[in-house]
Structure formats: structure tokens, C-alpha cells
Design goal:
heterodimer; A: mainly alpha; globular; B: alpha+beta; 3-stranded antiparallel beta sheet
Chain lengths: 199, 82
């Protein structure tokens, strides 16, 4: 890892890195605002996968973090997985081949993100509280919630919440819309099946 | 001024769509249907182009940049001035 400079790498308590922005200062989905153009089928595949990963995996990790307030070690594991998931989404939206799970954390901390959020590796480490001792009896998650709210706010369209009863109907309707969208781009919505099985 | 779509606006999520055209695709937040894109209906005067609100202007620019829409500019009264 080479992106941590002496100035940025301060592992002490009660810290704010001089060059870091808070989650509330970061731009979520900057390429949406810029109008990032992809090949038609690639755009459909990337955005449908992204929506699914956000509403299924992203929401589940946030639920885990919220529900695990008394289990900091579980929260620590969940927030690492959440960061890896966001990196995976970032790679898809950038049109890159997905990074193997085992390397997502390292890639996020080394190179940061550009599609999901414009953040450097050290800034992500700040937001996700990675300065904390792993296995300790506390887990900082406040900035992660702020980041999640910014992601939902900036996401193009309203994501159905399949974790609540009334969200099931919206989810079914959305899947039908996505099937039509895929057909319009010459794709089969079956590309989503592996993600749905994994959820 | 009028905007002519060369692609199709496809629903994606509530409040957003994907514009597919010329082999390209771009996500359009705030656009639910083709009619939500500015100037796709009746032509507007040039000064109305300057009066577009930022969100509508951004949507139009994204569509143009994706090659899924093009602007047509005509001149009313041009024949009479010749």
C-alpha cells in the first residue's frame, strides 16, 4: 500500500486526517451527474446489477450494522464486507472486470473509488473507521450511515426495499421492468440470476 | 429548437430511466418517460433553451452526449428575410 502518506496516516485516537473529507462531503455517483456513456447492453447490465447489489446486499449490510450495535465484532466484519461490496459495484460501473472478493478491500484502500463515490483509499479508511483495532469492543459506523444515505439520495431512481413487506410488490414490478429493459438492449435478464441466487 | 430522440427511453427505476440509442446507453435520473426530456414535444424558442432549469438541461446534455438525441434548430421567418 503506497497511498498513505506520513501526513495522512495517523492511527491515534480522536483523529481527523488533515486531507480527508467526511462522508457528507463526498460526491456520490459522480458519473451519473456527468452522464457517463457506456455501450447500450453494458449500461443496462451494469445499472441493473448495481441496483440489485445496492438494494439486496447494500441494504442487508446496513441492517446488519444497525442490528449489531451490541456486537461490535460482527459490525467490524459487516463493514469490511460492505466496503468490499461497494468496490465491486464501483468496478462494474467503471466497466472493469469484477475484482476477486479476496482483493476488493486492498484495491479499495489502494486506489479508492470513482464511480460509487469519489473517495481516496485513506478517505474510505476514515469513513469505515479502519483505524480501530480489529476485535476490539467498539465499532465506528456513524460515517458509514451518512455515506449510505448519500448513496441512496444520489442513486438514479428509487430503490425498492425488499426487506419490508410492502417492498415485495415493488420488487416484483421492478424485476418486470428490468426484464423489458434487458430485452430492449438485446439481453436476457438471466444475467441477474447469479446475483439473486447469492442474495 | 427541438430535441429529436434517436434512441428509446426505457424505464429503469421509479424516477429514472436508461436512454438507449446509437449503440450507447446512459442513465437519466429524474426522467421517467420520453416526454420528461425537454424539447421533445413542440419546438421551443431559442431563449427558452437558456431558461431551462439545471436538472432538465443536464438531462438534455446527457441524452445528446450519448448520441441518443439531437437538437434541431430552425429559424422562423427566415424565408421572409431573404
Amino acid at each position: 500500500m503506497s497511498t498513505y502518506t506520513d501526513k495522512e496516516c495517523d492511527m491515534s485516537e480522536g483523529r481527523r486526517l488533515p486531507t480527508s473529507r467526511t462522508a457528507g462531503e463526498m460526491t456520490a455517483f459522480p458519473s451519473v451527474r456527468a452522464g457517463h456513456v457506456m455501450a447500450g447492453p453494458q449500461a443496462v447490465e451494469a445499472w441493473v446489477q448495481t441496483a440489485w447489489l445496492m438494494l439486496a446486499e447494500g441494504r442487508a449490510y446496513i441492517e446488519d450494522l444497525e442490528g449489531g450495535a451490541e456486537q461490535p465484532q460482527m459490525q467490524q466484519a459487516a463493514k469490511l464486507r460492505f466496503l468490499e461490496q461497494l468496490l465491486d459495484i464501483d468496478q462494474r460501473l467503471a466497466g472493469r472486470a469484477a475484482v476477486d472478493d479476496a482483493h476488493c478491500l486492498a484495491v479499495a484502500l489502494e486506489y479508492g473509488m470513482r464511480e460509487v463515490v469519489d473517495a481516496t483509499g485513506p478517505e474510505l479508511a476514515e469513513v469505515f473507521g479502519l483505524h480501530e483495532e480489529f476485535g476490539g469492543d467498539s465499532c465506528a459506523v456513524g460515517e458509514i450511515y451518512v455515506l449510505w444515505e448519500r448513496l441512496l439520495e444520489a442513486f438514479p431512481g428509487k430503490l425498492p426495499d425488499r426487506l419490508v413487506a410492502e417492498g415485495q410488490r415493488d420488487m416484483l414490478r421492478t424485476l418486470r421492468v428490468w426484464a423489458r429493459l434487458a430485452r430492449a438492449a438485446g439481453l436476457d435478464i438471466g444475467f441477474l440470476a447469479p446475483f439473486m441466487k447469492a442474495a | 429548437v427541438g430535441a429529436e430522440l434517436t434512441g428509446s427511453v426505457q424505464p429503469y427505476l421509479e424516477g429514472a430511466s436508461l436512454l438507449l440509442g446509437s449503440g450507447n446507453g446512459v442513465v437519466l435520473p429524474g426522467i421517467g418517460a420520453e416526454r420528461d426530456l425537454p424539447f421533445t414535444g413542440a419546438p421551443a424558442r431559442l431563449d427558452e433553451l437558456a431558461g431551462l432549469d439545471p436538472k432538465a438541461a443536464a438531462s438534455l446534455l446527457r441524452a445528446l452526449r450519448a448520441g441518443a438525441a439531437r437538437l434541431r434548430i430552425g429559424y422562423t421567418g427566415a424565408e421572409a428575410r431573404r
